[in-house]
Structures are given as structure tokens and as C-alpha cells.
Amino acid sequence: MHSNLEVIIGLEIHAQMSTKTKMFCGCDNDAWNKAPNTTVCPVCMGHPGTLPVPNAKAVAKAVRMSLALGCTVAPDCHFDRKHYFYPDLPSGFQISQYDFPLAKAGSVSYELRDNSGGVTGQRVCRITRLHMENDAGKLTHRGTKTLCDYNRAGTPLMEIVTEPDLRSAEEAVAFTQELRRILVAVDASEADMFKGMMRFDASISLREKGTEKLNARSEIKNLNSFKSLEKAIQYEEKRLRALWEKDGGPMKGAITVGWMDDEEKTRMLRDKETADDYRYFPEPDIPPLHFDAKEVDLIKKSLPQLPKELRDHYLSLGLDSKQAMQVIDDAALRSVFDAVYTKTKDGKRAVSLVLTQLLGFLNAANKTAGQGPSASAMVELADAIATGAISGNAGKDVMEKMVATGKSANDIIAAEGMQQISDDSAIEELVKRAIVTNPQAIESWKAGKEAALGTIVGWVMKESKGQANPGKVNAILRKTLQS
Ligand code: ZN
Ligand code: MN
Fold this sequence. Notes:
It is a single chain. The chain folds into three domains: 5-299, no CATH class; 330-415, no CATH class; 424-482, Orthogonal Bundle (Arc Repressor Mutant, subunit A), CATH 1.10.10. Helix content is 40%, strand content 21%. It is built from 15 helices and 16 strands. It has a nine-stranded mixed sheet. A hairpin with a 2-residue loop joins β8 (138-142) and β9. The protein starts with a strand and ends with a helix. Residues 22, 25, 27, 40-41, 43-44, 154 line the site of zinc ion (ZN).
């Protein structure tokens, strides 16, 4: 057994940009749930005589992402034609960028975590380049027939290529998850995995530890979930290790494989193609792009907080590492948390209300934060508790009903008569009755058992259905007993 091998992984990530229109035409860029071949035009269908026009919004998003990755945006770059035949590519070439990409040389630092969200390691993965290109259509194979849907043809993509800096499936997953957060944070992509907006190709090879040379790699194409990325890398690593054992060394040439999700194994597709095979040449129909340094600098300054900075921010408010990730990864939850924190100015309270109580009720009701109370609804509730209109305990009941019914806090409080009793005379009345009803507790208290008063307070809380203000009950009880 060759235990002295290490696995070397590099990724190419394709992310769909969240623009209204496609990369080179005015077609609707949102193909989700649209009838096949309805969001197309002569440009994205590659008809002769049509001219592509780059989408300025897409270019701007790609620049934002490049800067968020710490890449240097090239002052000058251009598009190239990458030729290959496939039925989902009606023009016979993809408009991409080859030797002059939009941006180069960045890096992403990311964290490895255990199952409970605790940080177990810090890593850095360098980014080789980021370039823009258009997506192809979609093929659906039905028995012996193949259906073509060109709605996705022309969708703007960013291709992000990493250095071979990853050393395990775990690192690949943690890195791509961080990359996804950055895409969303800078509004470059919705990065919705379910809709296939982020796809991975993973290149994997082995080498003896202590050696520097990269051996021939196996490239796993088109992985579209973190789960399949993880499983495919694990599978291919095992396969390559066995092959190394058998052949006594690395593979002779690079290969391209596909991942079979159902069978959970890779399948040989072809020998790896090289750049020569694509006959790249500069796209003659699109003028080169130029970015001046000032313009790029302004965009850099306009970037929002990146996930790493957000993480530090939330940790400083008292969230634990797992809670910070939950908030960052769920936009709806984050807006609720931020609103409640802004209102209460109390990290602990906001954590308790939103991340303990609200998440608990949402989970129990099988709802997401987006399906639960809005930020303003939760602020109304936090306010009702802060002003003493209802007790913290009653607040929990109100919140549970908000999750179940979608009604506002104040409506529920009014309809259920849950207002906290803070009125002194009402509480005095309750305290007097409690003393009469529980003589033995009073005897114990007189005998020096301070804790016996708990019985009295408990009786008042029960009698008032939890609506008496506990602070006032305590104060009034002591005053009554002293008089
Ligand atoms: Zn079009
Ligand atoms: Mn590509």
C-alpha cells in the first residue's frame, strides 16, 4: 500500500450571473419554469448575420466578483471563440475568454468546520483567473430521443479557476461553500444550487509527498451539488490510488470522466482535450474591453462586507460560530436578526429571540425563515416584550402563533388578551389572595425559609395565566409582607 501519496485538487467553477438579460442579447435570463425555447432570439440561437453585444451589467458583476476574490482586473481584455460541436451549442462556438481573461491572481481564505460548526482549520486557495462566457442550452435524453431547450443558451457565466491548492474532498466542499457565500454577498449570482446556477469541474491527481511535479489528472465534469462534488472526489481519489498501486505510478495521460449520481461512480468520457483542439481565436464581432484603474477602484470601494468580515461582525455580537454561519447563509434569517438587533441593541437578546426561539418554532413547523415572520413583524414582537406589554414567556407563545398563522404580534396579543398585567392594584389584589390561599408558605417564610416565597409568586403567575409582571409581583409581595 502506497501511503505516501497526496491528493492534489483544482477546481473550475461556473456560476450563472444574476442579470435580467443574457450575456450578448436582450433575452430574459430567467429560464426557470419557462416553456422550452421561449426565451430565445436569433442572437442566442447563433443565426447568421446577428451581432452579439456584451451585457454591461454582467461585466460589472464579473468585475465585482473578481475584486471580491482579490484578483487583479486586467486593464484590457477581449472575448474569444472556443469552437466545438454539441447540439446544445447552436453557433458551433462558445464566446469565452482565453489568454486574456478579465481577472487573475486572487485568493480565498476559508474555514474547515466540524459537524457542530466549530472551526477546525484555516485554509487558503489561490484563484488563477476569472473570465466571462455564455452558457449552452440544455439537453434532455428520453429513451432514444434527445430534446433541446435553448432557454439557457446565452446565459452569462463566470468561470472561476483555482490553483491546485486543495488537498481533500472536505477542503473542496468548504472552499466552494465559501465561494458561494461571496457570490451571493456581492450580488454576482444567486448561486442557487437547486437551479444549477453553480457547477463544478474537479481536477484530481496524485503525487508522492515531498515531490512538486503535477502528474496527469482526471477531470470530473459538471458536478452540480456540494454532495456530488464531495462524493465524486472521494471516489476518484480511491480509484486513482488503486490504479497507482496496480501500475506502480501515476496515469500516463490526462482523462475526462463523468460522475454518475445514481451509481455513485465516475465513468470515462474521453482523453482530456487540449486548448489546440478548440481552435480559439479573438471574437471578431465584439470590441476589446477596457477598464480604467479609477473605475475599478470605485467598484472595489463599493463592495459590501464579505462573508469573512460578516463572520467577525456576528461573532462580536455574541453569536457562536455555527449561528454566525446560519445567519450569513440565510438571507431571510439575516434580515430578521439584523432588524431585531438594530431595535434591541442587545446581541444576547437578539440571539435568544431569533436564533433560539424563532428558529426552534420554524423548525418545528417545518418552515424556512423566508416562510416565517418578517423582520418588521419580529421587531414589533421584540418591542412588545421590551416595553413590558407582554412578558418574555408570553412572547414565546405569541411567536409560536406568529409562525403558525402569519398574524402580527399586536393582533395576536389583542385577540388573546395576553397583555402583561403591570397595573399595581391588580397585582396587589392577586398577592393578597395568594397569601390567604397559601398560609403554610407564609409560615415557612416567617421561619426563615426565603425560598418559600417562590410558592406565592408561582401561585400569582399561575392565577394570572402568566400575565402578571414577575418583577412587580416580587416587589409588591415583599412590600405587603413587610407592612
Ligand atoms: Zn437571445
Ligand atoms: Mn467554461
